[in-house]
Amino acid sequence: MSGRTQLMWDDAVTGYDFGDTHPMDPVRLDLTMGLVRAFGLDGAVDLRSAKSAGDSTLRLVHREDYVAAVRAASADPRAADQDYGLGTVDDPAFAGMHEASALIAGLSVGAAEAVWRGESGHAVNFTGGLHHAMPGAAAGFCVYNDPALAIARLLELGAERVAYVDVDVHHGDGVQAAFWADPRVLTVSLHEHPRTLFPQTGWPEETGAGDGEGAAVNVALPAGTGDEGWLRAFHAVVPELLADFRPQVLVTQHGADTHFEDPLAHLAVSLDAQRAVMESCHELAHQYAEGGRWVALGGGGYAVVDVVPRSWTHLVGIAAHAPVDPESVVPSSWRDLVYARTRQLGPGRMTDGRTPSWKAWEDGYDPADRLDQAVLASRKAAFPLRGLLT
Fold it and tell me: Which residues are catalytic?
């Protein structure tokens, strides 16, 4: 692959704004880009924007009537049609909704195009990862499903095998739904158990349908799962699936809401474990995806000062082959920015002080352990459908 890692960015993404009281505060995007710049990572990547996703691109995943409804709500938020999930508590309508959403989608599609065409081996869009949007409805703070659109564009360009790995605390339901019966796309989601968290899907038994049976894999983690269990689950499932599938492109979603400080969920994962999974995704792309093709996206994350900017700055550094040392002190210029924007004090270092470790699945499992039960349920449901041993 030629060219440096591409980082997709446009200041206008902060227009994706559901309002002052909504947990998805766009300041998290601005602060992340500020931290990327404070560490000089903008000089280690090719920083670029992309065209907003047009109607023909949006229709690769979304229904024409839904796109029209988003446009109408964007022009007049009071006219939002709740039958399309618009104007709800989760997805309030706002002026410019279509434009901001289409821009984020366009950045993810642009990242996928750059990687597929060999312009860069890796591309990052931390503003993306809006994985809950359905073909005909907004859901879970997501209007257009940019991960699904990026994958659909890869298929349109000729890709025959695309793997999608989602480590957001919430199930990647919209992406799974988009490719439910498509054997060209392997979707793997590690998330908090649907009994305790939105969107109440992502059970191990959800494995795809028709020609795509076995192409959806779900690991439903018990509430309270921390670093060791989260990493154990990831490594017990993801590498083996990717080794078998051999994707031409690996697309990953790195929602930061698995963190123990996140206010909307119940896992207990540290920044250091999140970083470890990012490094593993990078290594897996080089090991199994053709030419190391890797598209890395953001996602959820509602600890918008303490967690999200640090997590996604690590993602950018790893993808740029310029990783930030976890022991690094956060630049004072960025902490000044945090205070100016939020009147909060920013974190002092790029670590939570944890040393991630896990026990390999190959070393055996405990049938009485809830985490091991979750992993085993996923392997038993999906692995035989792919010809793999449980």
Answer: 132
